[in-house]
Amino acid sequence: MTDADPPPSVCSREAFLRNLQEHATPATADQATFGLVLVKLSHLRDINNAFGFSAGDDCLNSIGRRLLDTVRAHDLVGHLGGGLFGVLVAEPCDEALLELAINRMLDELKPSVTLGERSIAIACRAAGGLYRDHGPTPDALLAAVESGLHRVFREAQSYALLKPRGYGRVTDDFTLLRAVEAAIDNSEFTLNYQPQLRLDDHRVAGFEALLRWDHPVYARVSPERLIPLAEKNDVIVPLTRWTFNAALRQFSELTGLSDDAKVSVNLSAQLLTHLGILDIISDALAIWNVAPHRLMVEITETSMMSNPEASIAAVHNLREIGARISIDDFGTGYSSLAYLERLPLDELKIDKSFVRRVTDNEHDQKIVRAIIDLAHTFGMHVVAEGIEEVSTESLLRRFGCDVGQGYLFSRPLSAEMIDHWLHAQPAGVVV
Length: 431
Ligand code: C2E
Ligand code: MG
Ligand code: MG
Known about the structure:
alpha/beta; Alpha-Beta Plaits; TIM Barrel; eight-stranded mixed barrel; five-stranded mixed β-sheet; 17 strands; 23% strand; elongated; binds ligand C2E; binds magnesium ion
């Protein structure tokens, strides 16, 4: 760490990740390698809460500047989001140098940050590893160092230097899956809530809980990538338990809802026939003291059709504990009428692909109209998802659709924002 001038500034996450990839040339065993260090401020949220976001930003700026002060000219410092920083310790690097670098960084980060008259104590922890020894690809190295950092936090150490170990072939999915497991332990998931409004009077009928994962390195991972991956592995079980508990807890904390407003939670295809799912759901209802009829379990038409007989049994069981059942993404799964009749369904959600086209396609209008009539015949109410335009809403209302959900009314919102949103509506009515 004795080289000339420090690099001029802290780079963005994108630039840092790009650089990391560029450093990873196909190296032979005797070539010099580089190191990666992740440094995390452990209580950014507390700082934001106690002193305000600008104080939080000032602390992050100060950490970035101090990191720049400790590194060599060719090293790179990046702010990866939240309280997380990455330092690429350029080649040549070995374990001894990496450990020295980490110690220097942590020493430099010990003093409090002074903001005017105020002095804010900061606490950072770190983990580091060497490219090739600790990960055969940059992504694998990142995942390994990241899980090392989680361990540091879990075990309240100040830093960890990864131990070399053999790596097999690492796929992206594999790397991500390991991160999913760590993310459950570290509560990295959140739920967003999207309001559902009755189309006749715009009263709030309920909210759909949608899973969000803001991974510190991979940024936002969409549920459409995450869920199928988790389904390939037992991770889907704890993830589902977490989702039902978080949704029911947050729902139980909302005030100002009408008594029949519901929270909708998506249930993955694989869990529909999982033996423990009834316990997971009824335990969560009991813990958070939510009346079962206020929970709408959304199951996609496709997942029901992938195993029709088992799904019928599962849906009956769910209905027996008092939960309501919705058939999601309807129109994409080719259910037969006879099949629908055998299911005690409460709600049908028209897939957003039909909703999007309904104003300019006569054929889709006929389908949507038929779906609405069919659902009503079977005693279900109908939700249209993905409503973005006023003209779509008007048409669907004319067709007798009961409830709407979509960007026109609101994007999915965080739990805090949904509370504000709800209280901004006059008596729960959107005008
Ligand atoms: P979904 O259950 O059909 O959820 C509706 C999706 O449509 C959500 O995407 C929502 O953000 C999006 N959306 C809502 N309004 C509009 C609109 O006006 N226009 C457009 N273009 N899109 C709109 P998201 O959140 O990305 O979720 C995608 C899918 O991932 C969900 O589709 C659901 O199948 C699955 N998913 C989400 N959360 C969970 C979960 O907790 N568990 C399980 N098993 N699956 C989940
Ligand atoms: Mg859904
Ligand atoms: Mg849907």
